[in-house]
Amino acid sequence: MTPILLQPVDQVEILSIMDNTIDVLMAGTPVAQRAPLERDKFSRPQLRAEHGLSMMITIQSNGHKDCLLLDAGSSAEGALHNMDILKVPPKVLDAIVLSHGHPDHTQGLMGIIKRFGRQDIPIILHPEALLKRKNVRPDGFEVDLPPPSRQALEAEAVKIMEEKGPTLLFNRQVLITGEISRTTAFEKGFPPGRAEINGQWQPDPWIHDDQAIVINVREKGLVVLTGCGHAGLINTLQHVRQMTGINDIYAVLGGFHLTGKIFEPIIGPTIQALKEIDPEVIVPQHCTGWRATFEIAREFPEAFIPNSVGTKYTL
Fold it and tell me: What is the domain range of residue 274?
């Protein structure tokens, strides 16, 4: 693979718009600035946590800023509410990226487009992000996973960019990976997944629409943001290294999908492989799970930062 030239940026800020956890008393770090405690905090609307993920990313280079959103949370109003509480200015977003099509990452999309998206805002997604999906447990119980509505998106006059391969934004300063190669022996997909393809329900364990965002911070290395990491955290980081020709992973933030009976057995090999990659900043979120988060905190005491909704990371 010929490396993709990813132009470095001077700084990246990542604001946690939605995640599974919130702790208004959590201590900050040199990297993580927690949501401010104001005098009247408890007499006005509060930030919310929900089973979902959304991050606002602002890159800065040579005094110029560009802003994009990764995912939109799991309810119609949750991420929108938090953006208002966090005083995100209207029409600030230059692009929106969907990590994949599952509803815990897409349900807030329409409200965010209306209030925070600029005119004709591009929405970058894999074509399979629009598939109708469900999870089927071994006992036969089914959970519907409604996708984003193409019709609703088109009604907002957004620019839908469906790409299986990589996409570069903002003068080659932001890379969206597209499909991620599956190379590790232990990251084997999501067996309960099903998708409706050509009118028939079919197994969908690989969730090929899973993709990540990559930014190269000058003199530090790559910042990698994952939604659920259905491709596997290690597959993702190895793929990013190969795509860019840059081995230094400075920070990784997002869902690592290591929770539940199916995925807890791969926590060990994930941790061992992550030791070789050795990021300076690790922020597990959303579907990482408490067991994996505990192990990351134990094995990477200097790199680990717990997330809380409203936290801003400056990298």
Answer: 11-314
Please report the DSSP string for the chain in residue order: -PPP----BSEEEEEEEE-S---TT----SSEEPPP--TTGGGS------S--EEEEEEEETTEEEEEEE---SSSSHHHHHHHHTTPPTT-BSEEE-S-S-GGGTTTHHHHHHHHBPTT-EEEE-GGGGS-EEEE-TTS-EEEEPPPPHHHHHHTT-EEEE-SS-EEETTTTEEE--S-----SS----TTEEEEETTEEEE--S-TT--EEEEEETTTEEEEEESS-TT-HHHHHHHHHHHHS---EEEEEEE----STTTGGGHHHHHHHHHHH--SEEEEEGGG-HHHHHHHHHH-TTTB----TT-EEE-
The per-residue pLDDT for range 133-177, each reduced to its tens digit, is 999 998 999 999 999 999 999 998 899 999 999 999 999 999 999
- Residue 120 in any domain: the answer is yes
Residue 244 lies in a domain: yes
The CATH number assigned to the domain holding 277 equals 3.60.15.10
Number of domains in the chain: 1
- For residue range 254-301, list pLDDT tens digits in order: 999 999 999 999 999 999 999 999 999 999 999 999 999 999 999 999
pTM: 0.97
